[in-house]
Amino acid sequence: MFTGLLVYVDDVILVGSSLLEFQMVKDSLHSAFGIKDLGVLKYFLGLEVAHSTSGISLCQRKYCLDLLQEIGTLGSKPVSTPLDPALKLTLDQGKPCEDVMGYRRLVGRLLYLTHTRPDISFATQQLSQFMSQPTDMHYTAALRVLKYLKASPGLGLFFPRNTPLTLQGYSDADWAGCLDTRRSISGYCFYLGNSLISWKAKKKVTVSRSSSEAEYRALAYATCELQWLLYLLKDLRISCLKTPVLFCDSQSALHIAVNPVFHERTKHLEIDCHVVREKLQAGVVKLVPIPTALQVADIFTKPLQPRIF
After folding, report:
1. Between these two residues, 2 and 300, which has the higher pLDDT value?
2. Sheet containing 286-289, strands listed edge to edge, beginning at the edge strand earlier in sequence
3. What share of the chain is helix, strand, coil (3-state, %, to 5)?
4. Closest CA to 187 of 298, 109, 103, 54
5. Closest by alpha carbon to 201, among 114, 87, 116?
6. 75 class by beta-carbon count within 10 Å (0-12 exposed, 13-18 middle, 19+ buried)
7. What Cα–Cα distance (Å) separates residue 162 from each residue in 4, 76, 81, 212, 245?
8. 100-113 vs 61-71: helix axis angle to the nearest 10?
């Protein structure tokens, strides 16, 4: 039996496996603080929760529609991707933005929306780089994200009730993807069964000398996230049925993980990157090659054409 409490200021969510335990916890809290029981979770901090016999869905539909109405894009024509694949955002393109605070507020609200919309994670990562000195081009790109959201404001995450307890992830990198710093963009996502539970798009803190190094660094980030997820599942008393699998579309990165003595490609790598090989040898993770066309994490590293997106 397991019971967990999620507390945010004066709001509390109870999760667990026993309704009897729930009642005991609520009675205890009520005697101490005088709480109000709102029943089955339906709405929490902008997150809308819907329950059905097939599973649980999360979305931020009202939050998204309120954002569209506030910015004035509720009646705009929808677009098929958050970012224009032909446009590469840089620091000095365009004229200085007239409403800097408005741009920062907009990007901040988009960042909160990524809690249920992983499809805009890369776009918000790109836009958040220009908070200090945004231009009109950056603001236009942010408005395009809103036009993309206009097409499906209620889109979110679905967690089926009957899903295998297996953990699998996807790791990818776009070498020298940032035109201003030539740093690479890495991305990963993890599924528990058929449920997407973790994802990230992030610019590296150092410049990679080759695509192999960029992909291997992305693998290291993903491996650390995988280890944290395993710790979390253990705390929740959930055991994976099989060894977690991490998919990567770079053969050279997979070779480095097996044998770090890989000539010119590895002599510039820091020691901490070899956490991948350590976890591989310990049996914590299994690395599997995957074709680029099937690389799910590609959506977190670069703007894609509509068909691929």
Report:
1. 300
2. 195-203, 185-192, 167-174, 245-248, 286-289
3. 40, 20, 40
4. 298
5. 114
6. exposed
7. 21, 39, 31, 38, 20
8. 160
CATH numbers and ranges of domains, the chain? 3-39 (no CATH), 61-151 (no CATH), 163-300 (3.30.420.10)
261 has a pLDDT exceeding 70? no
268 pLDDT above the threshold of 90: no
Q: How many other CB atoms are there within 10 angstroms of residue 256's CB atom?
A: 24
pLDDT for res 241: 86
Non-local CB neighbours of 216 within 8 Å, separated by 6+ positions: 250, 252, 253, 256, 257, 266, 269, 273, 276
Q: What is the number of other CB atoms lying within 10 angstroms of the CB of residue 283?
A: 8
| Structure-block tokens of residue 75 | 């009646």
7 pairs with which residues across the strands? 12
Q: Which residues contact 83 (CB under 8 A, 6 or more apart)?
A: 122, 123, 126, 141, 144, 145, 303
255 pLDDT band (50/70/90 cuts)? Answer: confident
Q: Show the tokens assigned to 266.
A: 């590895």
d(CA 82, CA 180): 21
> Taken in order 170, 174, 175, 178, is the CA torsion positive or negative?
negative
pLDDT in the model for residue 187: 97
Q: Nearest 10 degrees: CA dihedral of 296, 167, 201, 291?
A: -30
Tokens standing for 306?
A: 């509509």
Measured at the alpha carbon of residue 260, what is the angle toward residues 257 and 261, in degrees to the nearest 5? Answer: 150
Residue with more model confidence, 171 or 235: 171
Q: Residue 260 above 70 pLDDT?
A: no
How long is the chain?
309
Residues 57-79 have pLDDT tens digits of: 999 999 999 999 999 999 899 99
Taking residues 49-64, report their average pLDDT. Answer: 96
